[in-house]
Each structure stands twice: as structure tokens, then as C-alpha cells.
TrEMBL record:
PANTHER family: SERINE/THREONINE-PROTEIN PHOSPHATASE 5-RELATED, SERINE_THREONINE-PROTEIN PHOSPHATASE WITH EF-HANDS 2. The lineage of its organism: Eukaryota, Metazoa, Chordata, Craniata, Vertebrata. Keywords: Calcium, Hydrolase, Manganese, Metal-binding, Protein phosphatase, Repeat, Sensory transduction, Vision. Coiled coil: none annotated. One of its GO terms (biological process) is visual perception. Gene3D superfamilies: 3.60.21.10, EF-hand. It comes from Nothoprocta ornata. Its EC number is 3.1.3.16. It comes from the Eukaryota. Residues 546-581, 630-665, 670-705 form the EF-hand domain. It holds the Pfam family Metallophos. This is Serine/threonine-protein phosphatase.
Length: 706
């Protein structure tokens, strides 16, 4: 009996270990694909920044196009925004049966909205715009870092990413109670994208913010950014729900996002930020940054290095003669006109400030002449974005330094190793180690950090000796049953208490074995694929199929004799060299390939099987399907940038200018007549406009011609 018990215990431990191994592999697949998509977003931004730096308009039409497409995200003057989003002129028909808002808002308005959204009702566009207008007015009065005290409420509840999952917000309010004078909430960014009810979440949070301005606090996340929204679904969601006034709502939301506070401090001891910190994080700088200038954190980053060096030299009052010859050459090419006067001494700050203002204004005028930027954008580019004129004794930060501060707190992640390095996995922000955390905590007398930004299987996770807490509130983020959501409650003692949940009804009905993916005490079940695993491997097979051509070339490089077979070890090495996802391919191999008896893989047959699986669902030619799978997300984002009115259509002229822009960068030889022939050939319904499917067809035709 004793031996039997030992054998059962040993078998069970091995069983649990294999389950844990499968769980971690599934998790790594989901996260690797998610972060690879974020890398693509950063690369796409860099591509457009490159175009802006290197494309010289040859006509007024091209200047107008670049101005509209690449600078349309900049801020507009207050009067213009209010005139554009004039909600008072909108009529609410008598037939409208949804909730109605009147300002100032009362608690009853908030509860009425919750009930209406539970019944799948939609708030009229007039009320949405009115709410956004009032929210913007309130946010403009708030500091960059909100300060919350546990003295005035029993506890403070901190929620992480919600990502458009309204059911999670409903469940949080059901379990924890609605915001009230005794119930303070901090929502730590990423309210939108990915989920289907992002706009409803914004409406609910903004309503409670106005009803309880001292008890509800909102931090900005990396998804509160209109450039990110173009890729991850929020822009599309708004236009589908508000086809007539959607563009106005998006413009107003874009402006509201840039006024969201950047961080929250609880009792001056707990810092809440969305992403993380870096070794250069400076809370004093964060408090003084004009946050609304950074409408998109993905914009304004890329500039020619020579321009950046010139700017820094000018701000610091350095003489060109002190620069290196290479820097002088760069400065000469960046600024062909000689300076009329040398920079005054930093000792006289008033004189120096006037000089900087004049210098910056000259550069603004030169840039405006280059791309014909309208006067309405002057407010975004003025001297105040570089130096605060209200405090001449304040440190003089460059826009690049301010941008990096915001980028780091919105995009960074912790790592177990010491130090601070570039976050190459996401493509933005940095990785910060325990030493960086300790340094920042000590510098500002903090106890610990709370951040979000990363999905965690249990909804929360400590790291860095329990000095960094990640909280994530969107349950079932990757797939039903994939993860729990959580929120954390802090009392006056600042000891965290966690509440976990899963909002989806289906998740509650799954047994533990179904979530893990195998029947108990079944070796066959261990080899089976769970619902969550199947979703992960399906996404991974799509990723593999999208790189069929590159994989085929990589496999042939290992197949020196042309046998059509490679070893499984070479298969794993080749796949990682192409996809660069950092996955344990040898461990994942049994779920992805079937090897021959001699331990080799017939790679062309395997690639054909991948293509057959995708074709059976899409019914599209394999070659075209591979191109679409690999590029669809980028192409859809590009299409939405060009489609300024978000109508789902772009004009022939916009299409023509877009392809001229791309061809100049990608060395594709396309004449004006060639582009005109192309646009006519893909306008299948002959309506004089190009929709997204027709845009994809143009991409395929150009790739084929190459």
C-alpha cells in the first residue's frame, strides 16, 4: 500500500508538472503573438515617420495630402474643436428610447446608463459628445499626477486593463460596489481596443468621473492613443456604432485621451502607472510636462538625428564651433540658413528664453513652408512645448526628453534581470530590473509600484521582491478560460487585498480539467489539446502560414542535398529564425508537425497542410492568402489613416497620392498612368471609390508585378 501511494504521488506530480508546462507554453504563444503585433505597430509608425522626413512634395496636391494624412492627428484650437463637435445643434428624436443625460450629472444618470448598456441600448450621439465635452473640461483642470488619500474613504480600489470588456466592469461593480464618496476607484488605463464595448466603458467611466470627481481617477494607458486605436479596433467600433457622427466622436475622444492624467499616487507611498518606469524616470518632470501636447505617443518621436542634435545644441546654448565636424555637417544640412545671432548666455534666462522662442518660431515657419501646414496647428508646435514660460527658473527640457518620459511609463515592462534596456519585444518603452525599481522607490520615498499593461493568468502578479504589482482586469483576454481578471483594494495600511473573477458565463461552466485541457487520470487526455491551447495553436499556425515563403527558403537552406526533408532540430531553428517569437519550438513540435519514422520532416508537405487548413476557411488562392495574412493588419491601419472621414472608402485621388508616397520609399516603379490604370482595374463596383478589399487587391497586383 505504501509503495502504491508513492507511485500514485509520483505519477500525479509528473501529471501536474506536464499540465504546468503546457499552460506556460500556451501562455507564451499568446503573448509572443500579441507583442509581435505591437512591434508591427511601432514599425508602421516608423515607416510613416520616415516618409515624413524623406519625401519631398512636388506639388501643392502632394503637400495637402501629406498635411492631411500625416498631421491630421495633431491638436486643433479650442474654438475649432467646439465648432466641429457642436452637439447642441443635434436633434434627439421623440422615438429615441435610450438613456438621456442632463448636466451636471447625478448618480441616477450613471445607474441609468449601466442598466441601458446591460439591455444593449445605445446612447444618442448628442449625449456622447456632450459627455466628452464636459469630461474634457474636467480633465484639463487635473494635474499630471493625481493624489489620492485613504483618509477620506475606507479603501481605494485599483483596476487594470479592461480592453473593451464591459462584462468585466459590470462584475467589478457588482462585487465591489459602485463608485461613491466612500468607494474610491483608480482605473489604470487601456479602457479601449480589442473588446467590442470600448465606447460603453468610456461612457460609464467618464460619467462616474463627473459624478464623483474626487473618488474616480483615470490614468492614461498606451491604448489611449488614436494611432493605436486604428489597428486594434476602437476606431472601427465607433464608426460602426455611430455612422453619422462617428468622426466627430472620434475627434473629441482623441482630444480627451491626451488630457488624461499620467499617474496616481496613493498616500504619497504607492505609485500607479500603466506600464512601468526606466532608469531615467523623473516624477518632477512628469508633473510639469504639458501632457496634452502628446496626442499620440507614437508621433513626434522620429526626427533626423542631425536635427535633434542641432535642437539640443541650441537649447543648451552651445556654439557650433564646439561641435564635431560630423555634427557641423549635419547641422549645415539640417539648417541651411545661417543664424543671425549667436545664442545668448544661459545666465540671462529672460534673454535666452526670447532667443529660444525666436529660434523655434523660425524652424516652425520653415517646416510649415515645407509641408504647407495650416495656421490652425500653430498651437501644437509653439515654444511652450519646449519651455514653460510661466517659470523661467524651471529646467529646460527638450520635447524628446518629455516624450521619452511618457513613452516609458506607458509602454515599459519589468524584467527579473538587473538594469534597464530597450523593450525590443513590444517595440516601445524599456525593460526595467529590480535595481531600477529600488532606485526609484528610494528616490521618491515610495513603498511599491502598481502597474498593468500585461495579461496575467491569475489577474495579478508580484515581482521585484514584491515591490512591483501587475494588475489586469480583463478576464478571458485571449480565450474563454485563458485567464482570470482581478482588482486590488488598499486600505490605510496599504496592504493589498485581491479579488479575482471570470466574467464570461461559459468560463464558469468549464470544469478544472476542461480549463487545463485533459480528463483526469488519462494519458490520452494529456496528449489532447484544450480549448485554450487549441486557440493558441490555431493563432500560431496562422502566423506560420503567413510566412510560408520565408519558411520554405529557410528549410531549403538546411536541405543541402535537395531531399525535401530536414531534421526536427533544423526545423525548430529555421522557424525561429523567420518568426522571431522566442518560443520553445522543440517543446511545441508535437502539436505542430508529424515526423517520419526516421525523425525527419517532409517540409513541403507540412507547408501544404498549413495552406490547406487556411484555404478551407478562407476560400482564397493560397499565394494571395499568405500575403494577406502577413500584411492585413498593417494594410488595414494604413487604409484607416488614409480614410480620414472613416467612411470605409478612399477616393481615387487619395489612392493615387498614397501609392506615389509608398513607391518613393519601396522603390516600386509606378508611373502616374500606371497608378491610374491600377485604380480603375480594382474598382470592381465602379463607384469611383476604393474600399478595403479593393485596396488589398491593389497590394496583391503590385507585389505580383515585382
Amino acid at each position: 500500500a505504501f509503495k502504491a501511494a508513492v507511485l500514485i504521488q509520483r505519477w500525479y506530480r509528473r501529471y501536474v508538472a506536464r499540465l504546468e508546462m503546457r499552460r506556460r507554453c500556451t501562455w507564451r504563444i499568446f503573448q509572443s503573438i500579441e507583442y509581435a503585433c505591437e512591434q508591427d505597430q511601432i514599425k508602421l509608425h516608423n515607416f510613416f515617420s520616415y516618409l515624413m522626413d524623406h519625401f519631398t512634395p512636388s506639388s501643392s496636391k502632394e503637400r495637402d495630402f501629406i498635411s492631411r494624412m500625416l498631421i491630421s492627428g495633431e491638436s486643433v484650437k479650442e474654438a475649432e474643436l467646439e465648432k466641429y463637435c457642436d452637439y447642441e445643434s443635434m436633434e434627439v428624436p421623440d422615438s429615441y428610447a435610450g438613456p438621456r443625460l442632463s448636466f451636471p450629472l447625478l448618480p441616477d444618470h450613471a445607474t441609468a446608463l449601466l442598466e441601458a448598456f446591460k439591455q444593449k441600448q445605445q446612447l444618442h450621439a448628442r449625449y456622447v459628445l456632450n459627455l466628452l465635452h464636459e469630461t474634457r473640461k474636467h480633465l484639463k483642470q487635473l494635474p499630471n499626477i493625481s493624489h489620492v488619500s485613504t483618509c477620506y474613504s475606507e479603501e481605494v480600489t485599483v483596476c487594470g486593463d479592461l480592453h473593451g470588456q464591459l462584462d468585466d466592469l459590470f462584475l467589478i461593480f457588482y462585487k465591489n460596489g459602485l463608485p461613491s464618496p466612500s468607494k474610491t476607484y483608480v482605473f489604470n488605463g487601456d479602457f479601449v481596443d480589442r473588446g467590442k464595448q470600448s465606447l460603453e466603458i468610456l461612457i460609464v467611466l467618464f460619467t462616474f468621473l463627473l459624478v464623483y470627481p474626487n473618488e474616480v481617477h483615470l490614468n492614461r494607458g498606451n491604448h489611449e492613443d488614436h494611432m493605436v486605436n486604428l489597428r486594434y479596433g476602437f476606431t472601427k467600433e465607433v464608426m460602426q456604432k455611430y455612422k453619422v457622427h462617428g468622426r466627430k466622436i472620434l475627434k473629441m475622444i482623441q482630444n480627451v485621451f491626451c488630457w488624461l492624467p499620467l499617474a496616481t499616487l496613493i498616500d504619497e507611498k504607492v505609485l500607479i502607472i500603466h506600464g512601468g518606469i526606466s532608469d531615467t524616470t523623473d516624477l518632477d518632470m512628469l508633473e510639469k510636462i504639458q501632457r496634452h501636447k502628446f496626442i499620440s505617443v507614437l508621433r513626434g518621436k522620429k526626427r533626423k538625428e542631425s536635427n535633434r542634435n542641432v535642437e539640443i545644441q541650441e537649447i543648451n546654448g552651445e556654439d557650433q564651433a564646439q561641435a564635431s565636424p560630423a555634427e557641423q555637417d549635419g547641422a549645415a544640412s539640417a539648417c541651411p540658413q545661417s543664424r543671425s545671432a549667436q545664442a545668448p548666455s544661459m545666465a540671462n534666462r529672460l534673454e535666452f528664453s526670447r532667443w529660444v522662442r525666436q529660434t523655434v518660431q523660425e524652424q516652425i515657419e520653415r517646416c510649415r513652408r515645407l509641408v504647407d501646414v495650416s495656421e490652425s496647428e500653430e498651437e501644437e508646435l509653439t515654444y511652450s512645448s519646449l519651455v514653460s514660460m510661466t517659470d523661467l527658473d524651471a529646467p529646460c527640457w527638450t520635447r524628446q526628453e518629455e516624450w521619452k518620459q511618457i513613452l516609458d511609463i506607458l509602454w515599459s515592462d519589468p524584467m527579473p534581470q538587473e538594469g534597464c534596456r530597450e523593450n525590443t519585444v513590444r517595440g516601445g518603452g524599456c525593460y526595467f530590473g529590480p535595481d531600477v525599481t529600488e532606485k526609484i522607490l528610494k528616490k521618491y520615498s515610495l513603498q511599491f509600484l502598481i502597474r498593468s499593461h500585461e495579461c496575467k493568468q491569475e489577474g495579478y502578479e508580484f515581482c521585484h521582491n514584491r515591490k512591483v504589482l501587475t494588475i489586469f482586469s480583463a478576464s478571458n483576454y485571449y480565450e474563454i478560460g485563458s485567464n482570470r481578471g482581478a482588482y486590488v483594494k488598499l486600505g490605510p495600511d496599504l496592504v493589498p487585498h485581491f479579488v479575482q473573477y471570470q466574467a464570461n458565463k461559459t468560463a464558469h461552466t468549464l470544469t478544472m480539467t476542461q480549463r487545463q485541457g485533459c480528463p483526469v487520470f488519462s494519458e490520452e487526455g494529456l496528449r489532447g489539446i484544450s480549448r485554450v491551447e487549441e486557440s493558441a495553436f490555431r493563432a500560431l499556425r496562422e502566423k506560420l502560414f503567413a510566412h510560408t515563403s520565408a519558411l520554405s527558403s529557410a528549410f531549403k537552406a538546411y536541405d543541402k542535398e535537395g531531399t525535401g526533408r530536414i531534421t526536427l532540430s533544423n526545423w525548430a531553428t529555421a522557424v525561429e529564425s523567420v518568426l522571431r517569437l522566442g518560443l520553445p519550438w522543440r517543446m511545441l513540435r508535437p502539436q505542430l508537425v508529424r515526423s517520419a519514422a526516421d525523425g525527419t520532416l517532409e517540409y513541403q508537405s507540412w507547408l501544404d497542410d498549413l495552406a490547406m487548413e487556411q484555404r478551407s476557411r478562407e476560400h482564397i488562392q493560397s499565394g494571395l492568402l499568405e500575403v494577406i495574412y502577413r500584411n492585413r493588419s498593417n494594410l488595414e491601419t494604413i487604409f484607416r489613416i488614409i480614410d480620414r472621414d472613416h467612411s470605409g472608402l478612399i477616393s481615387f485621388e487619395e489612392f493615387h497620392q498614397t501609392w506615389k508616397l509608398f513607391s518613393s520609399h519601396m522603390n516600386i516603379e509606378l508611373t502616374d498612368d500606371g497608378i491610374s490604370d491600377l485604380v480603375r482595374s480594382i474598382d470592381f463596383n465602379k463607384d469611383g471609390n476604393i474600399d478595403f478589399n479593393e485596396f488589398l487587391e491593389a497590394f496583391r497586383l503590385v507585389k505580383q508585378s515585382q
